[in-house]
Amino acid sequence: MPGRSGFGILKAIKDCHPDIEVIVITGYKTLENAKEAIRLGAEDFIPKPFNVDDIVAMVAKTMEKRRNNLKINPLTE
Hints:
Helix 2 links the parallel strand 1 and strand 2 (44-47). This protein has a single domain (6-76), classed as Rossmann fold, CATH 3.40.50. The termini are far apart. The protein contains 3 helices and 2 strands, in the order H-E-H-E-H. The protein is mostly helical.
């Protein structure tokens, strides 16, 4: 992404909308990058190449977690 890192975009998203769930998909698969993405608020970190079924499962898991969180604290929306 010219002019901005993925971490910069992740931070900007979470700063403006901390309740949005972000799944990072990257070609730079290092443990340090995964830790940084999670520290900045990513729900998960998926390295390329990836399996589409893994992405579908991760999105489903993230949506379920979000639904459960909203049931616990409905005032967040």
